[in-house]
Amino acid sequence: MLEKIDLSKKMKKAEYKEEINKLSVKLGELQRICQSAKIPVMIVFEGLDASGKGVQIGKLIQALDPRGFEVFAVKKETEEEKYYPYMKRFWTKIPEHGKVSIFDTSWYRKVLGERFENQMSADEVARAYHVIQSFEKELTDDRMVIIKLFLYIDKREQRKRFEKLADSKETKWRVTGDDWRRNEEYDAYLKVNEEMLAKTDTDFAPWTIVEATDKRYAAVKIYKTVIHALETAVKKQPEPDETAPELDEKKTESVLNKADLSLAYTKEEYEKKKKKLQKELTRLHGELYRRRIPMILGFEGWDAGGKGGAIKRLTQALDPRGYVVIPTAAPNDWEKKHHYLWRFWVKMPKKGHITIFDRTWYGRVMVERIEGFCTKREWKRAYKEMNEMEEQLSDSGAIVMKFWMQIDKDEQERRFKERQANPEKQWKITDEDWRNREKWDLYERAVEEMLVKTSTPSAPWIIVEGNNKYYARIKVLETVVDAIQKRIAQEKEK
Amino acid sequence: MLEKIDLSKKMKKAEYKEEINKLSVKLGELQRICQSAKIPVMIVFEGLDASGKGVQIGKLIQALDPRGFEVFAVKKETEEEKYYPYMKRFWTKIPEHGKVSIFDTSWYRKVLGERFENQMSADEVARAYHVIQSFEKELTDDRMVIIKLFLYIDKREQRKRFEKLADSKETKWRVTGDDWRRNEEYDAYLKVNEEMLAKTDTDFAPWTIVEATDKRYAAVKIYKTVIHALETAVKKQPEPDETAPELDEKKTESVLNKADLSLAYTKEEYEKKKKKLQKELTRLHGELYRRRIPMILGFEGWDAGGKGGAIKRLTQALDPRGYVVIPTAAPNDWEKKHHYLWRFWVKMPKKGHITIFDRTWYGRVMVERIEGFCTKREWKRAYKEMNEMEEQLSDSGAIVMKFWMQIDKDEQERRFKERQANPEKQWKITDEDWRNREKWDLYERAVEEMLVKTSTPSAPWIIVEGNNKYYARIKVLETVVDAIQKRIAQEKEK
Fold this sequence. Notes:
The structure is a homodimer of 494-residue chains.
Chain A: H1 13-36, E1 41-47, H2 53-61, E2 69-73, H3 79-82, H4 88-91, E3 100-104, H5 108-116, H6 122-141, E4 145-152, H7 155-167, H8 177-184, H9 186-200, E5 207-211, H10 215-235, H11 255-258, H12 267-291, E6 295-301, H13 307-315, E7 323-327, H14 333-336, H15 342-345, E8 354-358, H16 367-370, H17 376-395, E9 399-406, H18 409-421, H19 431-438, H20 440-454, E10 461-465, H21 469-493
Parallel strand pairs in A: 1-3, 1-4, 2-3, 4-5, 6-8, 6-9, 7-8, 9-10
Pfam families (chains A, B): PPK2
GO molecular function (chains A, B): transferase activity
Keywords (chains A, B): Transferase
């Protein structure tokens, strides 16, 4: 496909100057409009080596208010970056609403490189492009404008540019052995790029091919592409949507109702089991660290369902240098300026570490759904988005598990009253807890739907029978210990 | 000094359980009080290898609400961390108001290690402790509670613990060659620690020595120390302070008045000089990158003084992958929850990169002083704090320069009116600009004091005569080019 493109396009200096000045004013204006309309923008520069990505970024940002953009030069992953799930690098760099992130190479870099070096199986390639597509879809669904530019020059032009760089003492260091090799194997490398363009040219995040032989021609085309994309985004009317929880209060036979809440341990049984399990967990935590296995544990459940107590019995056995508990409350102002998954992605653990979320991203399909904090389309697509995220985490080597702490309505009332009566625990109970309790049946329906749609082999839900705290805590400990043991046994088999 | 300490102290299990339960309730309560009083807390664990820092942190956090603390395990600097000024690692980890950061070894680690290995000159040691002391002073002046714990065991106990770890297949990896060597050279290592304790035991951030042979005894002592420190902080009445800008409006002979605002270039002179200087700057930017020299440029000046235009002429010549412009506005909610220097520290560039601040930390002694956004004591001590920060940046190898864009009052009026008349520039001018203008004379006095107190050899102020934009832009370009050239010449001499 690329060979059909006319790389001889040129533009005269005088014409260029006039044009670019007009476009600059226009672009500056559009940036301000996007800022006040809170539209976030990502501009991706990919393309051949020496096609002038740096130069073109330099030209583009001249028109932009520096208060509104950031440039990210994406290089080969550092050792530190390798310790995290791959897409975390990019989730941490998405702009807040109204801002612009510019990428000098991007999430495409790794797959291009490894594909060219034949380090990926067909399955892995398919998976990598699927992950990229999900990433771009999730963001554009959240009003992100993604502009992807592919800068294209031919083999001779590339060689000429390398030679020019290599000729000067000051720029020689910029041309590496890899560069020369990719020029020699230009056709093979181009094919890898063509595959990328074909697989990821979507209606929500399309590619624009920029003929980059002539820098002036390229700059004008880039300006025009960005301006066009922003104009379209600004004009676009949001499709009508509503905040409808779509739930009836009618009780049905359900997963939650099947939980046997009579399960219980005596204090003695509890103490004995706890001691043994915690000792084993301490040992296993060291193993996770040594084997560099990350672990992500999510806790959800009814208010006063025993999340805190269960988490405490876990952390008592963990080395504080190797885990962190992330309590999730309503998003703060800064978090609200981003995609709802952003604040969780940035907290995902490094290899060998454990992150425990006390409440999770599932708030999207529970409280946000029921209270109308997000729209119907938003919570409807969230199941898939959350499954995607967890699958990516699991693919990156993490053990991912989610616990639902189940109690019945009477037990909740008992615990609320107990908290109110105890001066040391009063702070734990608020009017909001009582208000939420009134919506018990609505929540129950939402939880049911959530459990069904998001319990996956790579990130299962575990329903914890919680009326008896002892039983619940032991079940959590046992489940975690068991999961780590299984994983380690698998690793040993390899 | 340490040899005088009684390491045989012990506590029975039953007594411990009773005591620690009481202390836990107390500590949990105090954490909540500190949270609502917005008091930030840092707890530092230092001490000998195998003295049980991890275990003790694990015990301490059992009493804390996980929503309110974070544990940082400080290891040897990674390659990535080495690219930044040393203290940036810790500035980025200070807790927001009301939260707790716990450090498993800390900013003391590096100096202890290098001191023991005889890698530091006496001067460097003195400088390192000075930097640490400034850091702790600045934070405690901002209401931070810093609790420093030194866990102490004797040589035999340490050896015993290493042997126990080394005996088990699962913990063997935790004992390194360095550990054994430090045990052999226990006395020498202890001396280094004693020096540290002596040099950094201040009234605002004192050390507590924890006899750590018996874990129960140590845990109780740590709980009590933390509780005592928090109780003291909660009870402490803030000393009376006021928001007094302390400025009279009377004009005096001044640095600013001496600036020759008639200096000017014609458009032709400007274009010619600009072209030459930008070409050289592009080359020098590559040199900075290769030599890994970071550069920090701060811009301050009157509204409409030409900061934006000057910055633009710089960045036109820079590779966008190697610089970033940080626009500084009033701090947002998140920034307000931290020390005022925090938001600048987190933006400090990596080696080989340039950070340009469009307005800077000097807002503290200008707008914050004049408008009463900070207290008299706060702006008074800010000069020293800012000098300290810049000196640390300079010591870490950065070129640090600050530009004051000077215009006169008539020129400002002319520019304001021009902006209002031009539809493309109207957005640049607000009512606030006109209001600030009314306080011109007050600002002038504050700026004078700032220039005098904070122009240092390691971070000079450059006054840019700005009535003629051409002249101003060339002066900024020339000064930057000149500074880089000088630095590179120095490096070549080495």
